[in-house]
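Section 3.1: Structural characterization of target chains.
Under the original work plan, the team committed to producing a structural model for every single-chain target entering the pipeline before any wet-lab resources were allocated. The record below documents one such target. The sequence was received from the expression subgroup and is listed exactly as submitted; it comprises 163 residues.
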Amino acid sequence: MTPKVKRKLSIEQPISGIIPGLREAVEGGTARAARQAEPIAGKTGTCSEDRTHLGWFGAFNSVGRKLVVVVLLMGRQGSGPRAAGIAGEIYRQLSEANYLVEPPVAPRSAPPVRRLTSSDYLAPNHESSSILSKALILIFSSAILILIWRMLRERKRRTDFGH
C-alpha cells in the first residue's frame, strides 16, 4: 500500500491568526505560570467529572532552528493552569541548561541562522510557518486524544453499570 495525498490543507494563514492568542494565554491568561523571557505560545484545558479533573497544557517555543514542544496531561486534581506551571518549570530548566540559547553564529560561508521574531508569528515565512504548524498540530492532537480518552472512559463506566 502506497500513501497517496488527496489534497493539501493550507493552514499557515489561519495558524498565524491564532498565534497571538496563544502567546497572550501565556503572557497574561490561564497559562501565565509558564511565562518565560523567551516567548511561548500555548493553550490550557481542564476536563471535570465527578470530582476528578484532567488538566492539560500544550505549548511551543521556537529559538533559531530549535523547536521545543511541551504537552502535559495531569490526572486526578489536575487543571490547565497547574499543567502550565509544570511546563514553565520544564522551560526554565531547559533555559538554565542553555538549551534555549541560540547557537553561535555560523562561519561566513554558511547561511545565517535566523531567529524567529514576533513579526514571524504575524506574517510567517514558509519555514517558520511549517514549524509552527507542526507544533500546533501536536498541541491540538493531544487535546483530541484527551477527549477520546474521556469518551472511552465514559463508555466503559456506562457498560460497567449496565446503562
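The mean pLDDT is 76.
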